[in-house]
Specification:
By secondary structure, the chain is an alpha/beta fold. The chain contains ten helices and 15 strands. Bound molecules: NADP nicotinamide-adenine-dinucleotide phosphate and ligand F7E. Ligand F7E binds next to helix 3 and helix 6.
Amino acid sequence: MKTALITGVTGQDGSYLTEFLLSKGYKVYGFVRRTSEMKRARIDPLHSNPNFKLVYGDLCDSSSILNALRKAMPDEIYNLAAQSHVKISFEIPEYTADANGVGVVRMLEAIRRVEEETGKKIRFYQASTSELYGKAVEIPQKETTSFYPRSPYGIAKLYAFWITKNYRESYGMFACNGILFNHESPRRGENFVTRKITIEVAKIKEGISKCIYLGNLDAKRDWGHAKDYIEGMWLMLQKEKPDDYVLATGENHSVREFLEEAFRVAGIPIKSNGKKGIHEEYIRTDTGEAVVKIDPSYYRPAEVDVLLGDPSKAKKELGWKPKVMFRDLVKEMIDADMKLLQKELYGSKGRR
Ligand code: NAP
Ligand code: F7E
C-alpha cells in the first residue's frame, strides 16, 4: 500500500485527488490548517474511510511540515496548498510569497531531512501554474515557453517552480512541476470567475438574484475539468524519471463566452448592450432587465489577457488527455449549482 501526503487537501484539487488515490488503494494523509470552523465541506464525506487521516500543519510553519512528513512517511507528496487567488494576491502579496513560494522550499528541505534520516525516497509534485506565462510571449504556451508572471501569485509560483527544479537537479530528488492551466468543477472556489458565474446564473434562474457584477469579460483562459487534471498529477509521479509537464485542453475561451454559455444552458435569453468596458451590460431579452454589469473593482492591477496551453508533451509521455471540454464543463457546473440551490431552497427532494 502506497502512502500519499496531500497539502491543500480541503481545496478543489485536493479533494478530488484524495478520492482518486483512495480508490487506487493508497493511504492518504491530508495536511490541514487549524480553522475556527471544523467543517471542511469538500472532504467531509471521506472521513469514514479508514485509509484517510488528517494532520495539522501550515506551509508557513517549517516544524509542522517536518512533523507531518515524519508522521505520514509518504511515498508521494502532492503540494497543492496555496493562496490560490490571483486578484487577492495583490492585496496580501507578502503572505502569498510566504505560503506559495517559501512554503515550497520548506517542504523540499523537510523531504531532504526525512530522506537523510530514514533512507526513504519520496516523490514530490508541485502545483505550478499557467500564471507563470502571464503576459505570454508565445501562443500556445508549452514547457519551453519563457515565463512572464503578472501578479504576486504568479511571481511566488515562479520561485516555487525553479526551487523544485533546482532541488531535482542539485540533489537528484524526484520532484515534478505540473504547469496546470485553469481547471474548474462544481467544487471550484466561489470567487473564481467560472463558479461565480454559475452560482449567480442559478440564482437568477430561481428569481433570488437580479444581476451579476463582473470585471474583465475579454480575458481568455484554457479551461479544463479538475478531475482530469488530478489524474495528470498522479501520472507525473508514476514515471521513471521526474520532469515538468503542461496540462491543458489546447482550447481557450473568453470570460464572455463562459458567461453567454452559462445563461444559454440555464435557458435565460440575454444580449449585450454593445457598449465597451464599464458601460457594457447584458440585458435579459424576455424581461428587459440588466443581468450582467461591470464592476471595475474586479479589474486587476495587471491582467493576464490570453492563456492557451499545448499539452503535447503530457499526451506523448504520460498518455494524458483531457476528457471534459468547455461546453460540457459549463453544463456540469450550471447543473450542479442549480441542484445545490434548489436543495437549499426546497429541501432534499429539490424543486417540487
Ligand atoms: P483551492 O481550492 O484554493 O485550495 C487551496 C488549498 O490550499 C486549500 O486546501 C487551503 O486550505 C490550502 N492552503 C492555503 N494556504 C495554506 C497554508 N499556508 N498552509 C496549508 N494549507 C494552505 O485551490 P485549487 O484550485 O484546488 O488549486 C490547487 C493548487 O493548484 C494551488 O496551489 C493552486 O495555486 C494551483 N493551481 C490551480 C489551478 C486551478 O485552475 N485550479 C491551476 C494551476 C495551479 P484552507 O481550506 O484551510 O483554506
Ligand atoms: O479569473 C476575469 C479575471 O480568478 C479568470 C487560479 O486557479 O487559474 C486561476 O487564476 C479571469 C481573469 O482565475 C471576474 O480578470 C472577470 O482574467 O477565475 P479567475 P485566474 O486568475 O485565471 C490559474 C491557472 C491559477 O493558477 C490560479 O490559482 O476572469 N474576471 N470578472 C474575474 N475573475 C474573478 N475572480 N472574478 C470576477 O468577477
